[in-house]
């Protein structure tokens, strides 16, 4: 290698060139690049996918364009609400990370739709975005069996199997290739992403981030139907232009109801265990049963320590 580099250059320049080559390839030389699962994207979905795969003992690598944006909240500084709050709790029931990190990083908790029945209540929390990102990055980087890599997945390796093509690995923008048994794609708004501002439009994953174009065309060539969903950011209002005397103050709940079941007090935990047992009963017998007393009593009177069905 040094011979190729030499070609009449100064010894220091040669040494510097060799150091650069070693640094560039250190990752591939020092790592075994075979994984069970490759997760593409370090947004909310990618984090949960990578953590879940590592919890069941898989060797996982989370590849994302910028390690510093792992756990980034793209838009609103809030989590949950009607529908999404339920989804977060379902993920929490599978030992997911989002609810627990929200509880650690929240500024205000408030249950929406309280005027209606408990089945349609939506837990929502205002979050400190920087704290959320930091707490999430701390957890992800210390998850056993989960490696993180800053790169962009540009292509998927396929190999013929008996009746179809199987995933065999991924090719990265840096030139590296990784072998794996499964690829999870969680590219969010980045896949062939576009930003529209007024009449202007330009390719972007999110403001300040590059879109994922190469991977989109690979998926297109593989026969997947690609469509873009719209997400919108409401206009920001300059607080100096608002007369707060005419607005109603919305305080957080006291006591706050956290997202994660692990952080709930006794009455709620009892309710959750019942819900799990009823779910297990439904799955094993095929006959759904609903305990109406349990559904209504526990959430309405949280201090209840026990409940008899
Ligand atoms: C301006 C804006 C406003 C939004 N407002 C809301 C809102 O109010 N409510 C709401 O629920 N949602 C909103 N969204 C949508 C929001 O993006 C999603 O709800 C959420 O972030 C999706 O999470 P995700 O994990 O699927 O993807 P994302 O959070 O988008 O993360 C995708 C990740 O994949 C990485 N990536 C992409 N391509 C590659 C590649 N080829 N190789 C490696 N890494 C790659 C990216 O770097 C990124 O880290 C908004 C989005 C934007 C941009």
UniProtKB/TrEMBL annotation:
<dbReference type="GO" id="GO:0030488">
    <property type="term" value="P:tRNA methylation"/>
</dbReference>
<keyword id="KW-0285">Flavoprotein</keyword>
<dbReference type="GO" id="GO:0050660">
    <property type="term" value="F:flavin adenine dinucleotide binding"/>
</dbReference>
<dbReference type="InterPro" id="IPR002218">
    <property type="entry name" value="MnmG-rel"/>
</dbReference>
<dbReference type="GO" id="GO:0005829">
    <property type="term" value="C:cytosol"/>
</dbReference>
<dbReference type="InterPro" id="IPR036188">
    <property type="entry name" value="FAD/NAD-bd_sf"/>
</dbReference>
<dbReference type="InterPro" id="IPR040131">
    <property type="entry name" value="MnmG_N"/>
</dbReference>
<dbReference type="Pfam" id="PF01134">
    <property type="entry name" value="GIDA"/>
</dbReference>
<feature type="domain" description="MnmG N-terminal">
    <location>
        <begin position="36"/>
        <end position="264"/>
    </location>
</feature>
<dbReference type="GO" id="GO:0002098">
    <property type="term" value="P:tRNA wobble uridine modification"/>
</dbReference>
<keyword id="KW-0274">FAD</keyword>
<protein>
    <submittedName>
        <fullName>Protein MTO1 homolog, mitochondrial</fullName>
    </submittedName>
</protein>
């Amino acid at each position: 290698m040094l011979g190729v580099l030499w070609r009449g250059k100064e010894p220091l320049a040669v040494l510097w060139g060799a150091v650069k080559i070693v640094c560039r390839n250190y990752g591939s030389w020092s790592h075994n690049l075979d994984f069970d699962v490759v997760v593409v994207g370090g947004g909310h979905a990618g984090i949960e996918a990578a953590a879940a795969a590592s919890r069941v003992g898989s060797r996982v690598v989370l590849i994302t364009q910028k390690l510093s944006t792992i756990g980034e909240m793209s838009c609103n500084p809030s989590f949950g609400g009607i529908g999404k709050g339920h989804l977060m709790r379902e993920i929490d029931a599978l030992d997911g990370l989002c609810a627990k990190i929200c509880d650690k990083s929240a500024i205000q908790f408030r249950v929406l739709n309280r005027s209606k029945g408990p089945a349609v209540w939506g837990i929502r929390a205002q979050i400190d975005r920087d704290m959320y990102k930091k707490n999430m990055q701390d957890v992800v980087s210390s998850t056993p069996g989960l490696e993180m890599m800053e790169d962009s997945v540009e292509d998927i390796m396929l190999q013929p199997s008996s009746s179809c093509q199987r995933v065999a690995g991924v090719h990265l923008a840096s030139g590296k290739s990784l072998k794996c048994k499964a690829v999870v794609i969680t590219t969010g708004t980045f896949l062939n992403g576009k930003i529209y501002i007024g009449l202007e439009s330009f390719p972007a994953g999110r403001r300040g981030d590059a879109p994922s174009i190469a991977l989109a065309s690979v998926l297109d060539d593989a026969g997947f139907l690609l469509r873009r969903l719209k997400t919108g950011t409401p206009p920001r209002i300059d607080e100096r232009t608002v007369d707060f005397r005419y607005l109603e103050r919305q305080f957080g709940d006291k006591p706050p109801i956290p997202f994660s079941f692990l952080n709930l007090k006794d009455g709620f935990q009892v309710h959750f265990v019942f819900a799990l047992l009823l779910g297990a009963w439904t799955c094993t017998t095929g006959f759904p049963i609903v305990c109406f007393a349990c559904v209504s009593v526990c959430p309405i009177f949280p201090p209840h320590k026990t409940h008899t069905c």
